[in-house]
Structures
1.
Amino acid sequence: MPGRVITITSGKGGVGKTTATANIGVALARRGQRVACVDADIGLRNLDVVLGLENRIVYDLVDVVEGRARLRQALIKDKRLPELVLLPAAQTREKSAVSEKQMIKLCDDLKKEFDFVLVDSPAGIELGFKNSLAPADEVIIVVTPEVSAVRDADRVIGLTEASEKRSPKLIINRLRPAMVRRREMMDTADVLEILAIELIGIVPEDETIITSTNKGQPVALEDRTAAGAAFTRIAQRLLGENVPFQAFDHSEGWLNRLTDLFRKQ
Amino acid sequence: MNFLSRILNRQPDQDSAEVAKRRLQLVLAQDRTNISPETLNVLKDEMIGVISKYVEIDRARVEVSMTHTNRGEHLIANIPVVGACAPTRLTPERRRAPARRTRGARA
């Protein structure tokens, strides 16, 4: 059975596409799935540093589509997780170095050998986004609970649906429970009411994302952090497991409210 | 100084989440339908003109807006009626005309 190509996109930059791609990839690989992470952000590659594999790049995606390297040569194996590989983006080329047709062919080849092909899309709705969308069997939209990110997500959902793809699924990233409890940030229900697509995960804001990215060790390598556990739950849902959503944004009694009150300076 | 107001939970920006949601609903309705605020104003003026022929309305308080919900885009008009239009002022033909227009608008 061929694998599933899942494109992770958002419209707006800086909402956590690359972090989500890396961590969902790691979480799936930890569950025994064969995973290929593809960095489609040609010219601005970052998935390599987030995964901690930047020192092992020899060939990249453009080398493969232009025939300078075989696909197998360009894939970087993650030594921590034997099931995980990365296909890095070219850093010195432009988005136009690859066509939609070439992306479809590339992902078709990867699908034969991997259970999951995760495509990390660049921000925006131009060529790089279109190239990432073309090979997708499924689309995941990453959004943060902010007006600009939600507006851009709505646009990308419209473009995805117009391209006759299945309705995308939503990750609400960097949710801050204390702010939500004070009604200073939109909650899951608010965002879902506006975007009206299926939710696949809620990831709370977590400082360990910064420290783990500093070190090139994705949080999902372990389950002890809030964000790591959230990405693991997303991987479980992708595998068809019925995992309940955490109620990050519900008030948990008067003690919590009191703590919020004093924390707010 | 702010402590008491904090305890009472009454800061002015308390429900900025609701403000964000309302603003998004409006802007997304505009994005999706491609109806600009200017077009909406022209529409509003024409609506006032048409409705005033039949009913006396409070022109200053008429509100026409687009909103976005998960079931689609809605054009919402809030038109305060000041007084009923006397039926004797309408000829038999004109009395039927508004009813037909209402059905047309709904279809």
2.
Amino acid sequence: MKLRVIWALFRKDFLDSLKNYQVLLMVLTPIILSLVFSNIFQESKTKTLLPKIGVIGSPNQPIISRLSSEKFGVRISFFQTRDEMERKIIEGDIGFGLILPDGFSQQLKAGKKPRLTVVYPTDMPEFAVERMQTAFEKEIRLFCKQPIPSLPIDLQLQAIGGNHDTAHAFSGDLFPMLVLMAMGMVGFLGLPLSFVEEKEKRTLYALFLTPTSSNELIIGKSLFSIFLIVFTVLVMVILNNRWNGNILYFWTFTLLGAVLYIFIGLLVALFAENQGSVNAIGTTIFMLFQLIPNLSQTSDLLKSYSAVIPSTFIARGLKKALFLDLSKVDIQSDLLIVFSVALLAYLVLFLCLKYRRTKI
Amino acid sequence: MINQAFVGLFIHLQGNVKTAIFQRYMKQAILVENLSKRFGDNNVVKGISFVVEEGEIFGFLGPNGAGKTTSIRMMIGELPYDGGRIEILGMPMPDERETIKKIIGVVPDHQNLYDRLTVRQNLDLFARLTDTPVERIDEVLALVNMKEHENVPTQKLSRGLRQRTLIARGILHKPQVFFLDEPTSALDPHSASAIRKLIRTMKHQGTTVLLTTHYMEEATMLCDRLAILHQGNIVAVDTPDSLRIRFGKANIAVTLKPTADEPEKRIEVPLNDEASARKIERYLSEGKVLKIHSQEATLEEVFMNLTGSQWKESDPGINQ
């Protein structure tokens, strides 16, 4: 294998990318999203975030003032009729609605038991309904100065395995997903599109006519994509100040993941007829690799599917490296799986390139 | 009779002597033997055989679909063949493909340059891939007269300039055997002429050239020898002159002196024909002949005679 050849291919892709707006788009998208998400889902905001609510009742009631206070942090819209409010809830303009009878606060102060009706859309997840109920119960108890009944047990909540304060923050949780996105954008879309562009313009044919081996071609074409992924992730890390966790493992998973994505991307490119088919196949794989690991906790079925999606182990490894105490979790097996799949992908790619290059 | 025999013999000898010299003193640059290729049910190349000698410009002449590009792709090792044998400078293809790649240059029938890169950047890439010193880039840029365009992205160049860049890329590593697939196709007369000059320069530098072309006149002007391909077969291989003699219907044009009754008159009679010979002999004995000369067949006529089909492509700027 000749480093001169690999460097020449890297240099060519680098120079070419400087004049290709698609590459800029691929690098900027995950970076911008990481900034947007970290800004929107800041810890202080995510802890108290409640949806906009609708109310039928007098705005002057003290309970309403309490709900709209900065502490509770919701925006309230008032409605005259239930139909009008329900329509807004169904259309998604407000999260849920409260129907307060006249004199609700006075009745409450007087120790009577007024009815408070909460209406919410049927598609609201169960856990959200429970959280909403708990929040209201707590606020009304505080409003009435009723102590919260003590539990017959000593309940303790303990977060375990974490090594960083931001582990609970939603923006932190999103970070591995955005790293996967950076890999997917370049690996499943950028690289195959560039490869197929070379097939369509037949520049690849010119490369094959030089004494360049299949190995040099794979590595040369991959190197620039690895550089792009690493560059994108590095900018994301710097801009979002994600230096927490185990840096060595984080970058090992990033690099191995990048290599795996790139090899799969090259396989897509090898069999895709044109840039349209790269978009179709690449986007499908991208979505599978992106969504299944991130939604695997929501159902047992998805969890079983996620075991055959390699990005599950990359995402898990990144999460462990960033947030968890590695003395208490097993990161090695995830690493071994990602490494094995990357190696397998390389072997398949090598054989395909060797036997398919005459058909390109 | 004597004149006819003399003219015929002279033309025949001219072609045969050239062929004989090639075969006696030159080494084989390309050897193709019983080469065949099939795509599904379509038999594209049907057992063709020929030899290209070192330093020769050898032309593949034929219309679209004759098998020219397929044959070249097999010779440069980019397409496996179904049967036969290919050797480049004595090395078998594809067994020695990697070695052969170092000594061949290729200009394909499509302009496959990196559009966003400049001329120099394109050449720089291929110089690095073929382990050619970077200084060579300046040499080839000067050779193809592209120095003033070296920093222009190739997508902004005219078709002719892009073709010159392709040739520069092909000769960058000083190949011993150079394959050009329709190098002047769809070029304006000026560009086509520049490309032909470059090909001649290559020959003078000792490079063996195999080129395919649609254009008969171009083949006649450039090639030492030609193979005419038709539907996957080589129907003839020889020097352009010999092809015209062997397969064309050459005529003798006789211009008769004007008489009191008739003005000067020109008649054409077929060469190698007893009746024609008697006719010319009679005119000569009667002292009627003003001028007599042979009129050779064109390659187009040769092609039509060999294949029975009409040539369709027209050639831009052949006389440049």
